[in-house]
Each structure stands twice: as structure tokens, then as C-alpha cells.
């Protein structure tokens, strides 16, 4: 039989270190994070008497580069995991994965495996979109794996003997859907008898990116006011935890209608409005939270951030959530009545299996292993 498997490859500028990784997306299962593993090919002549370290670095930019003046810095680095990979230990504290075994057989004795563990609760990979006129690196949370040659893990690394490859920490949709969201709000009027009632219901709690949300709106007008217009929208709430006033909202899609309006006193109205949250026309709006991208393809809105405990939030993270808001307009004197329901927007788990294309940071190598003759051929594209 013949098995094909793809790995990401990146070399240091001096060619003495080569990093191989089977994937660059690591899933956060809320209670734990998948280990980050790979293989390093080391030039033994160059590394004799030296050490090679692997580190997982989380970078958090919370301000624009162009605003950094007079030593002011809006950028932080967190070292979440660190391990010496060369010289390797006599016995590995873990069992190498199947891909690591294949790579070790292919690359020979100069290759050593590694495995790094990221703590649960580490912030997710999120990018805050720049406006068209903005320059420099966008704000957000990004990860990269760093390999370098040094005397200790706190030693200053030299660019020529360092490999840095961007990775992502992602979450996928839970397997069990939650309860159907529903809420009812009522409004009393000071000088008028009766109430205005608004019932808001979604068909489910969990939606995938690109899926249309059916918003069921039921209005019962027991007052003497007139409903003149109905509007519904999807709001993206972004919470930059490091900043005291770092909470804001973006409207990512909206629809309004006067069908069935004006709604007279004593009348009722039931309507279903369709909303599809997508980046679409929002590519020039500053502050929209996006999924941090590694590859050259279209960006998508950031997925909902799932937390094990709402209180256990990393101070360097960005928490994203979504909600549907419906609003009734009663005119200048009558005011407004609104209701809001949270929901979850995520990617499906089967999205992991999609083919990953090569990008500007890493080459993708295709290894073809013939298990009968124990020979492999390599095709780089």
C-alpha cells in the first residue's frame, strides 16, 4: 500500500535548522488544547556543543503600530511553552505520533521529535480588521512556533539560526446543540393603558458560518400606540480584556421592514426575517473581529469564543460573541422596544479535513511512503 501525507516545512536562514509540522491549526477543546508536535532536522556539525529550543509564543497587539511613539509600546509576547529538543533526551516522555515516526524514518538520525503543550484557557487566534487607510500589523492575538539555537531558553536568539512559523489555536462547533433561544419583553407607557409585547425566537442556538438565521418576531399590541417599523440585526460583541473600556459592538448585517405596519392598537403581527452574518461589504470597517488567517484566502468573521468558566478569562485575550437584536419603532413620542438573543457562530469540525495550500511562510511537502520497500519519494510544490 502507498500512503501520502503532507507536512509544512520551513528552514532557518542559514539552513542549519529545518522544521516539519503535520498541521498548523491546533484545536482548543475548552478543557484542554491539542498538543503541538513536529520534527526538527538539525545539522549535527553546526549544533555540536549547542542546544536547540522550541517555544510556543502568543503575541498580543492591542494598539496600532503608527501610534507607537517615544518608546510607547502596544505589543506583548507570552511564552506559553518551552522545551529543549536538541540534544534529545534518552527516553521521550511521550509516544511519537504516526506522522512523526514517518518523518523520523524519512529524515534519518539528524531529526528529533518534539511536543509542546499549551495551557487550557489560552486566548484564541483573533484579528481585528484594519481600515483601508491603516498601515502596519493589525491588532489581535496570534501564535507562532519558534525554534532557535542558544545556551538556554532565555538566551537571545539570532535571526540566522531561528525558525518562526505561524500557527493557529481554533475552536470548532460543539457536538451537542444548546436549547432554542427565546425571549419576551413588554413595555408599559406612563400616560397610556396596556402593554406592547415583543416575542423573539431563533430556530436554533448554533449556526455555522454562511448559514442564514431565521428570526421569528411576534408582536402583540395591547396598547394604544402604533408600531411603524421593525428592524432586526446581528451584532458582534468584541471584548479586549486587557483594556478597561475595550468592549464594543459591530452590526454585521441588518434588515428592516414596514410590511404589516403600521400595526394598530389591539392588532398582532408575526413575521420571520432572514439574516446572514458575513464579512461581505464590511472589509473596510475598522474593528471587525476576524479569524486569524495563515493562508492566502478570504477571511471570515471570528467564531464565538467558548469558555469553560466565564470568570476564567485570560487577560491577554479577545472574547467574541454574537447576538440577534430586534427593535420596534413607535415614532418620535412612543419610543422603541427592543429584544436581544445570544447565539453561537462557529465552523464545523469537518472543516479541519480541508486541503491546506502552501503560503508565503512555509512550503508544503508531499511524502509518499511505500510500506513494502520502505522507500519514500518527496514532491515539493
UniProtKB/TrEMBL annotation:
A single GO molecular function term of this UniProt record: G protein-coupled receptor binding
A GO CC annotation given for this chain: rhabdomere
Gene name per UniProt: LOC106125912
PANTHER family reported for this sequence: ARRESTIN, PHOSRESTIN-2
One Pfam assignment: Arrestin_C
Keywords associated with the record: Sensory transduction
Name of the protein in its database record: Arrestin homolog
A GO BP entry: G protein-coupled receptor internalization
Boundaries of every Arrestin C-terminal-like domain copy: 192-350
InterPro entries: Arrestin (IPR000698), Arrestin-like_C (IPR014752), Arrestin-like_N (IPR011021), Arrestin_C-like (IPR011022), Arrestin_CS (IPR017864), Arrestin_N (IPR014753), Ig_E-set (IPR014756)
PROSITE patterns assigned to the protein according to its UniProt record, in alphabetical order: ARRESTINS (PS00295)
Family the UniProt entry places it in: Belongs to the arrestin family.
Amino acid at each position: 500500500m502507498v500512503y501520502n501525507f503532507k507536512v509544512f516545512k520551513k528552514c532557518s536562514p542559514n539552513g542549519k535548522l529545518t522544521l516539519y509540522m503535520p498541521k498548523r491549526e491546533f484545536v482548543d477543546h475548552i478543557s484542554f488544547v491539542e498538543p503541538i508536535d513536529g520534527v526538527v532536522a538539525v545539522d549535527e556539525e553546526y549544533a555540536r556543543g549547542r542546544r536547540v529550543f522550541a517555544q510556543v509564543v502568543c503575541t498580543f497587539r492591542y494598539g496600532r503600530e503608527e501610534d507607537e511613539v517615544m518608546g510607547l509600546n502596544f505589543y506583548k509576547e507570552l511564552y506559553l511553552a518551552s522545551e529543549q529538543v536538541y540534544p534529545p533526551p534518552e527516553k521521550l516522555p511521550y509516544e511519537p505520533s504516526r506522522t512523526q515516526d514517518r518523518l523520523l524514518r524519512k529524515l534519518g538520525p539528524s531529526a528529533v521529535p518534539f511536543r509542546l503543550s499549551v495551557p487550557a484557557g489560552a486566548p484564541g487566534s483573533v484579528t481585528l480588521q484594519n481600515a483601508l487607510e491603516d498601515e502596519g500589523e493589525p491588532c489581535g492575538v496570534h501564535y507562532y512556533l519558534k525554534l532557535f539555537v542558544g545556551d538556554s531558553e532565555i538566551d537571545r536568539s539570532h535571526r540566522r539560526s531561528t525558525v518562526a512559523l505561524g500557527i493557529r489555536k481554533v475552536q470548532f462547533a460543539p457536538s451537542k446543540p444548546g436549547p432554542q433561544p427565546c425571549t419576551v419583553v413588554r413595555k408599559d407607557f406612563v400616560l397610556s393603558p396596556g402593554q406592547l409585547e415583543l416575542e423573539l425566537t431563533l430556530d436554533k442556538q448554533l449556526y455555522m458560518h454562511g448559514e442564514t438565521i431565521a428570526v421569528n418576531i411576534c408582536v402583540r399590541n395591547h396598547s394604544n400606540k402604533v408600531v411603524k417599523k421593525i428592524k432586526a440585526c446581528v451584532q458582534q460583541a468584541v471584548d479586549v480584556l486587557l483594556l478597561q473600556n475595550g468592549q464594543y459592538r459591530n452590526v454585521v448585517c441588518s434588515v428592516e421592514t414596514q410590511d404589516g405596519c403600521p400595526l394598530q392598537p389591539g392588532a398582532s403581527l408575526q413575521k420571520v426575517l432572514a439574516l446572514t452574518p458575513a464579512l461581505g461589504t464590511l472589509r473596510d470597517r475598522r474593528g471587525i473581529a476576524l479569524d486569524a488567517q495563515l493562508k492566502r484566502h478570504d477571511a471570515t468573521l471570528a467564531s464565538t469564543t467558548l469558555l469553560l468558566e466565564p470568570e476564567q478569562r485570560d487577560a491577554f485575550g479577545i472574547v467574541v460573541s454574537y447576538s440577534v437584536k430586534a427593535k420596534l419603532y413607535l415614532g418620535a413620542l412612543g419610543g422603541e422596544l427592543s429584544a436581544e438573543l445570544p447565539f453561537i457562530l462557529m465552523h464545523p469540525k469537518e472543516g479541519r479535513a480541508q486541503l491546506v495550500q502552501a503560503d508565503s511562510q512555509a512550503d508544503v511537502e508531499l511524502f509518499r511512503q511505500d510500506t513494502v520497500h520502505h522507500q519514500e519519494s518527496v514532491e515539493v510544490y
